[in-house]
Automatic annotation (TrEMBL):
SUPFAM superfamilies: YjbR-like. It holds the Pfam family YjbR. Keywords: DNA-binding. One of its GO terms (molecular function) is DNA binding. This is Predicted DNA-binding protein, MmcQ/YjbR family. Coiled coil: none annotated. InterPro entries: YjbR (IPR007351), YjbR-like_sf (IPR038056), YjbR/MT2646/Rv2570-like (IPR058532). The keyword Cell division does not apply. The lineage of its organism: Bacteria, Pseudomonadati, Bacteroidota, Bacteroidia, Bacteroidales. It comes from the Bacteria.
Amino acid sequence: MNIEEFRDYCQSFKGVQEKMPFLDVSDKYSRDVLCFYIGSKWFCFVNIEIFDFCCLKCAPDRNLELQASYMGIKPGWHMNKHHWISVYFNQDVSDRTIKELVQQSYDIVYKSLSKKEKELIGKYKVA
């Protein structure tokens, strides 16, 4: 999977918006981070220049299990290690598994949104 395929997949979910919120920071790596949002919350981010890993929201009860099962899944970079994982591309995590984890991250974040935000998202057309 390349950055274009990954981006298209993340954007395929209902109501997803993308932003690059760190353009003003001094760290080049962080400036190149693209975040995918559902409502006001992000569910995934990835560096668009290096494309080495994505960071995803994860159910705490699966977090350690996934890290024990895959060399390419680590604690979330710059995020709460209990709720986020970093999933490295081109390691032992298949594209299919990455997509499943992105979907789960989207679902976890969507469920946490307010009723008002969910209603707004419901007005988006499905891609």
